[in-house]
Design brief:
- The protein is of the alpha+beta class.
- It is built from eight helices and 19 strands.
- The strands form five sheets. Strands 9, 10, 11, 12, 13, 14, 15, 18 and 19 form a nine-stranded mixed β-sheet that branches. Strands 1-7-6-4 form a four-stranded antiparallel β-sheet. The chain has a two-stranded antiparallel ribbon with strand order 2-5.
- The two termini are 45 Å apart.
- 27% of the residues are buried.
Amino acid sequence: PLGPRVGQLEHDRRNAALAPMGNATSAIETSGDCHGTAARRQNNRDVFGAGVSAFRQELSGDGCPAPIPIREASMRARPRVVVRKRPLFEHEAAQDFDVLSCQGGTDVWGEGDAAALWVTRAMLAADHRTMYCEHHGFYADAVFGEAASTAEVYNAVLGGPLQHGSTTVLCFGQTGSGKTFTLAGIIDILREALPSGGGRWRVSALEVAGNAVTDLLHASARCVLRDDAGRCTRAVLLPASSAEADAAGEVGAEPSSSGAPCLLVGSAAEAIDAIVDAARRRSTHRTGVHDASSRTHAVYQLEPVDSEGTGRGAGGRLCLTLVDLAGSEWARDQVSHERARR
């Protein structure tokens, strides 16, 4: 029943049957090679691109392909999901087109309507002639378009929570999606945002590669995971020889005496410097997306401590954890890695 004109968007509202998220279709009648996903997209990119543009116009108007969920006050305790869309790389734009459309706002912590990211697929009908766009909506608390700066993301995500106790930022996505880029920008902003007064800070930086855990602050010293008395999992440094311990020492930093892989430093600025230095030591490898893809998980944590060494958000104090996960793989990138790195 869909019309043949590009941009005619009569939506198939099959949300319940297909998935618990929005779905829509728009028909495109065109000639050319339409067999095979890659050929269909590349040989008809102008036509499909026009279909995406028409869909975006509808999103910006009064039309809505599917209802957007409402966030209620009772949901405030749950984690927030924030999507950041990056621009196409030059080599991507040369042979493909942008299929991601943002809908909704950037209010991470508020109530009311959520946001959505729509993904467009280039499809072929059963007659093997008619091509059409299929749009799938994925809901989130906030969606930032490719024009948004890291500072905008930081202000929306951490501007308020940074003042109130423990906060965790976890970056997840495909290889090359901008996780490390975003987290590096957030760390740079933290240099100015954290309290500049005196007082010691505890900082840790762990790298996780499969079952191996290493301490990036102490020459990649090996660690093991143990449960403490409160059933919380902690990383503990394995004993090292005296020579290794001397090589692992940091100038101006005091190793923790608890056996935990962390440093006690004299200011927030020194804590940020330690994390930046640790980030440079992460393992990277070439992939089909770019030359320096992060192939491990990184977990950074920093918190102010009092004279007795009390921290970890005690008494509502700041405890910030930053997690940069290794990229999830495209199937074509699997050939770039040995089995351990997959």
